[in-house]
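Regression test attached.
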Amino acid sequence: MLRFLGTRVLHGAALLVAVSLLTFGLAALAPGSFTDEMRLDPRVSPETVAAMRARYGLDRAFPIRYAAWLQSACRGDLGFSLAYNADVATLLVPRIGNTLVLTLAATLAAWALALPLGVWAAAYRDTTLERACSAVAAALAGVPDLLLALGALVFAASTGLFPVGGMRSADGGGAWPALDLLRHLVLPAATLAVTIAPPVFRHVRGAMLDASRATGVVAARARGVPEAGLLLRHSLKLAANPIVTLAGLSLASLLSASLVVEVILAWPGLGPLLLDGVLSRDVPLVAGATTVAAALLVAANLAADVALFAVDPRIRVTE
Amino acid sequence: MTRRPRILAIAFAAVYLPVLLAPLVATGDPDRQQRDIPLVPPVPVHVIDAAGRLHAPFVYRVVALPDRFSAYGEDPSVRYPVRWFPPSEPYTLLGLPMRHRLIGVDAPGRLLLLGTDQFGRDEWSRLVMGARISLVAGPLAAALTVSIALVLGGFAGVRGGLADATIMRAAELCLVLPWLYLLFAVRAALPLHLEPDRVFLLLVGIIGLVGWARPARLVRGVVLSAREREFVTAAESAGASPARVLLRHVLPQAATVALVQAAILVPQYIVAEVTLSFLGLGVAEPVPSWGNMLAVLQRYSVIVSSWWLFAPAVALVPVTLLYYALAETLRRRWS
């Protein structure tokens, strides 16, 4: 177990270094920079621009800048955002929390909905209700997250049941801050859950169908194990591996979908911050946000690996 | 089951023929601003007039109601019949000079099938013209992704060793990044403001480049398993060169997998272009793209009152489902 974990952690760390090099390199290759906009401004003298470039280290060579950035990144210092005039790390930390709140809530909701439905759909396949359910899931898979988020916005704006954006009310929610947060969370989390639930449903259904045809399950049925026990004790155990693997893989698309939802429904997560960074050509901010997103994904995949280790004895044998 | 491909082909023609003939199918100039009629809801096409008599399809003239901002009524005094090939301002279609649209009404009547946007531009014409960017960028980018995947995945699978290890580590690197984040990071490295046709190429380029990893891994897997097959061993022992084995025996197998992948990727890429343009990182005004047409919905007053401006987002749904159906059909055919 420890060795398995150790290799996974090392692997993840190597990936993160590569990711940071990639994002930093992309940003450095970019034509134009934050100070270029200032050059166009006649009120800013060339000396001021040169002084700013020297102060932020923009005049040094790429490897030196990257080495310095990596060194401080290891200490938790992700550099200085030019657009926000603040530490990138201090900007990112609350945003990471907010994105995690949203994505975790959405993931829980999606799985709470899709997992039982998928198991049920596999058990009652080819009934009218199951077909209708699968058709709805297939249709929902065709609805882009952009449309869902805009739809949620219209719903909030026209009914007034939910806030149209943000995470907290201006007064901090009064006596019930947690309730206020929950009220703001419902709509973005539901939107995100609807975008991620259909593939989960389809995958769970498929995995359960495959499992029900496995020899072990057929043998158990021959022994006279009742259908309910067959489903929950035998099939689900077999289907656990592909389902957990999917959970790990779907996290990548989760963060992407979350970005769109966050921007449209004004949820103060990593997404809007990254968009701001891109629009204002803020290299440290873009590099920091992308690296942090990758780190979240690496951590989530690690958790999925550990879960796989726990639910599937076959992994323990091969490792 | 045998009718399925034919239905799909008809559906694709129904979507892409108007894209090809966009300026003809549009009912007017998509860039012309009619400041006197912003945010007009879709104008109904009538067959029964105000007096209850039956006619061929016609529209009434839209008039702005006095004293109220963007509230409109119909002027039932004159009927404007919807007719084929009404004259229009000159434009070019596939290089040919044209002076007529497909359908429309005579001036001063206006056929506003999907209403107008905040500048009074005809939403239907913009939707059709915008499809030329949004519905074409996706397939082009998917073709790029799949070509890269075939080359890199095929090379990794055939060569093995160091090349394989390097390519697959690079693929893992791209997979560990949430792809929209990666797309943003790449977009951040490129100039924000460019001419429309260069932005279009740039979007196709970056969207196509960013997604190469997953299909490349699939192609590599297919190539690896194909190399173990008897007919490949037979070809090798018959003295076929590695290039011939690859091109004649291995690639046809990988190509089918790649084609299914492409069909799945296209809708994802179409939405990616729309998302980037929506957020101001893609095709910029005044050139219509489904993404920048939706951008106006970021304004509160528009989103609660002007439901017809959702048209580009709603149009994405059937397009996406069409490509999924294509992927499903291809998969069934080859498995």
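Expected vs. actual: identical. Chain B has a mean pLDDT of 85.
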